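Data availability excerpt. The first of two example chains:
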Amino acid sequence: MKRLLLALLLISPVSFADWGDTYFCTMTHYSYVTNEGNQTHWPLENFKFHMDSDKKALVFGDSGRYFAELELPVELFYPKQVRLDAKNDGSHFKLRGSKAIYTAMYGPQATIIAADCDKF
């Protein structure tokens, strides 16, 4: 019976991602790494993003200190797998189920953020 309920939950439309969805995320890792290998850890934050259908982008709005006003065009999107990739020139955001990872390379450093996300 438990397996049946789990299977129904996983294939139900509620578990799919879609344009218009908003996700709330809690960082599990947040650091900068320089090209010399020095790493600085930053305080973890919460952030949210919206999947904007008109812009075909993830819109972070005023969410969190790091992601304030960031928009990333969606390049790859598989709604039934809750899988998407969004990126611009230096940033790349991946969502796989409820796990997200963000990397950005600007100048001599890289930002690395991992987060757990839930659809609201």
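And the second chain:
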Amino acid sequence: MWRKTLSAGLVLVIGLSACARDDPATAVPEIGEGAETPQEAVENLVVLLNDPDFTAAGRLMVPGHAALASLVEGATFAQVADAIEDGDVAVASNFWAGFAQGAGSFLTGSVTTSNGPVVNESGLDFHTVEVTLDDGSRRQILTRDAKGFRIDLFASFAAGLADKMIPPVERLITSQTDDASIILPALKEIVPSLLVAASQPDMTPRSIQEILRLLELITRVS
């Protein structure tokens, strides 16, 4: 399973996105429609990462996921809450920009895709797309229907995020603020994604432990 640190620029972008709400002249990218099929979502992402067109790629991520992921890079709770409420396409775009720079040939070279199994968790269907690289190695991307099929960041890449999210989530739980009241429900919405990630056959024991620890923290909140 792919593991990496998110681009440090994620914090800058999420801050700029929050400021855009107060500036009518600054347009916040619209989420638009997702792909018609799970495989098309991944294939479109590959094309957009190679172009590159990271703004369009940002629209292919499940809304709110990039905002939550920015917790690992030190985004303030106010910035995360604003991105959840006002849209996080710009943050998702920056995520994919960092991904393209740091992931080598994965999704940024010549790949082939095929449909994998559908996993149902908590009433949600997660559609697996198998990605085969030129060297024959395989990766899995999980997609979900969110007004069109989009990449589920946490179902796909929780192994690279969970351990870094634990400290800010611990602080968030003890924070009795309006921002926390926005972020905590959004975190609960990713519980099915984390459960799916922890069940993936290529997940290491360490990664599973980290994901389960994050799950325990999120579900602790009433």
